[in-house]
């Protein structure tokens, strides 16, 4: 399985939903919490081009946020992306 990285915030319901979907699929992921860490958030923004959390990467591919992750799941593409 490809490495998965999730930039998140502790109080973000979208982050919780995204992490729950990944956990339900048995995916181990690295979580990078941006709360109170302006340098970490700035690095995420530079890398993703977005300011909101969560921001999710599967391997080298930037998936986007929670809605993007669920869209991949609904389209039946998430499992293949995780295993590719």
Commentary on this structure:
With 84 residues, this protein is α+β, with helices and mostly antiparallel strands. The chain has one domain: Glutaredoxin, CATH 3.40.30. It is 45% helix and 21% strand. It contains 4 helices and 4 strands, in the order βαβαββαα. The relative contact order is 0.24.
Helical fraction equals 40-55%
Overall body shape: globular
| Counted beta strands | 4
- Going across the biggest sheet, name each strand in turn: 2-1-3-4
CATH topology category name: Glutaredoxin
Secondary-structure element order, N to C: EHEHEEHH
Gyration radius from CA atoms, angstroms: 12 Å
- Structurally, how many domains make up the residues? 1
In the predicted model, the low-confidence regions spanning at least 5 consecutive residues are none
Look at the helices and sheets and give the structural class.
alpha+beta
Major beta sheet, specifics? 4 strands, mixed
- What is the average per-residue confidence, as pLDDT, rounded to a whole number? 96
Q: What is the strand content?
A: 15-25%
Determine the N-to-C terminus distance. 7 Å
Tally of DSSP helical segments: 4
Spell out the CATH superfamily: Glutaredoxin
Multimeric state of these chains?
single chain
CATH architecture level-2 label: 3-Layer(aba) Sandwich
CATH class: Alpha Beta
List the helices and strands and how they pair.
Blueprint (H helix, E strand, L loop, with lengths): L3 E5 L4 H12 L4 E5 L4 H11 L6 E4 L2 E4 L1 H9 L3 H6 L1
Parallel strand pairs: 1-2
Antiparallel strand pairs: 1-3, 3-4
């Amino acid at each position: 399985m490809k490495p998965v990285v999730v930039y998140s915030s502790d109080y973000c319901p979208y982050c919780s939903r995204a992490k729950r979907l990944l956990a339900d699929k048995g995916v181990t992921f690295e979580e990078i919490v941006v709360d109170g860490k302006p340098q970490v958030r700035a690095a995420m923004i530079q890398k993703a081009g977005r300011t909101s959390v969560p921001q999710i990467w599967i391997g080298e591919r930037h998936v986007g946020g929670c809605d993007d992750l669920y869209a991949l799941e609904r389209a039946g593409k998430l499992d293949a992306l995780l295993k590719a």
